[in-house]
Amino acid sequence: MSANELARAASPYLLQHAGNPVHWRMWSQAALDEAQALDRPILLSIGYAACHWCHVMAHESFEDADTAAVMNELFVNIKVDREERPDIDHIYMQALHAFGERGGWPLTMFLTPQGEPFWGGTYFPKVEQYGRPSFVTVLRAVAAAFHRDRARIAANVGAVRRALTRAPARGGFELSLVQLDHIAAQLVTAIDTVDGGLRGAPKFPNAPILELLWRAGLRTQIPAYREAMRLTLERMSEGGIYDHLGGGFARYSTDERWLVPHFEKMLYDNAQLLECLALCFDAFGDDLFLARARETVSWLKREMTHEGGAFCAALDADSEGKEGKFYVWTWDEIVAALGEEDARVFGKFYNAGPIGNWVDAHYPDGVIVLNRLDAKRPTMEEEARLAPLRQKLFDARASRPHPGLDDKIMADWNGLMIAALVNAGTLTGQRAWIATAARAYRFILETMSYRDENGATRLAHSWRAGVFVRPGLALDYAAMMRAALALHEARGLPEAGCGRDCLADARAFAQTLETYHVIPETGLLAMAASDAADVPLRLAPTGDDAIPNAHAVYLDALLRLSAIAGDPQPLRRADALLAALEPAIAENVVGHAGVLNALDLRLRGREIVTAGPLRRPLYEAALAAPFIGRFVMDVDRPEALPEGHPARAQLAAAGEAAAFVCAEGACSPPARDVQALRAQLME
Fold first, then answer.
1. What is the CATH architecture of 408-601?
2. Residues 11, 58: contact at Cβ < 8 Å?
């Protein structure tokens, strides 16, 4: 039996377990071969570097020599980073759901030597408690069942496989604007009208759902729809889920008020929230949203940016063995940093006082999670006094041991953030964000692309310390395609320069998806590539998760590619994909909010064509229109538009500057100045 091999890994999560007495293997065919040769079941443990309960189980069980001895005797033990291998994680998380379990991380699955799941769970305590058996008891029982009751194991395996490969039944569901309005009317009733977000706890941002309601508000002019996003972002921006000293949002709130977060910070959450903040600032003019967006980007550049310009994956929830230790305060610590008088002023706004506002097993005497949920907004004079106090606390906090940084670079999460920086930057006028996006884009294309054995240019999914995880996954290409198109639209701005033909890149990403990821029988996108050799089952998930689904992102990108390039083929592909998705949407409407948002863009998106030698102000105004409903085409000559485009005939009369707003095969009269263009966009 092999010893622990994780010291050879690049993943920070796997390296966290390199010193365990468990004989961990990395996911590979060799590990499966070993299990088959020994006729032992596989214990598969999946987690990620910023996961609090993963750390708990590691400290309790995986670092314990006695527990490890049982694991090594009875199982072939495989450790997987869910971020590095989301394709593997998805298979076994869906298997756990098929067993009727809710799921979560750490994910603990028991597999046959061939990698087929037959039972599983999440966190198992080292000792029996709260009605849960001890981990060692579970290990011995599972191993005994595997060897003594193969018929039952085979039945479980078959049931799970059928559940994972079941196709949704086709029904009479029809995708339309009327259907979208009906869905929004039902969904808005689930919104917490006091604190925002979906009612109950824990509370996740759920950006696709907020966007679905936002789009419904634009269509129907019903205020409650856009209010759902505004209220949610306001409460999140004032809550403890937001880092009021360093910027950035934590992954979710453990309570219904956004007060106490699960303290890990993820790149993908902040990308989605950055776009939402920009939309709310543009619509309502509330400086809170712009401030939070600026602070989040500052955090991104300060703490999450690799020296090459790309963005790191996550910051851990834990430090010094305690969740949130880096972020929480005692009253004495605040007084020591600020002095008594300033501490009282600061505490008035940030819910800080001698008693504290959060009690936990790690903090039985109570600690302070900074938040402004119950305070009035500070005036300009009050904010001028608070800003240096926040800086003092930030400086004091900087001397603490920092949470671990998961510094692997992932193509999909970077694509999400690159597009968000461009979209939010153009909408809010923060041009420097676009330059930050262009630098990250250049890193991904220059560092993480490679040629496969067929000569095709491919993307790696993940990179760290010179080690690649490849081939890339469907979301890698979809997210980078959307990022490429955002940069292409903004190419007229000096900040957007990345030294590449981003439109050509977008086309190439689309081609790779069609070649390596489309399942011919269904037309859907498999998460794993067709030439991924170590994936036991290629699944094509369609619903939203915390991370956007590849289908939703690809649909958005196809629609943009078709409009911007004037090519009808991507539009036809988008329509075919929407039709293929209808049965899955009918089974779980809310879970497909991202796809429904792409449908709204398909049915209501407008092209803005700018032309003429003095068109620059019109072009910038077009880019400053909300990105969720517009495509920008900046042209030098009529021939730049494809044959048949409704604006082509009008361009000859564009004169020095003109903009045309086009939809459904027709264009508006030319807008000659920014005011006229904005008026047309308001219609």
1. Alpha/alpha barrel (1.50)
2. no
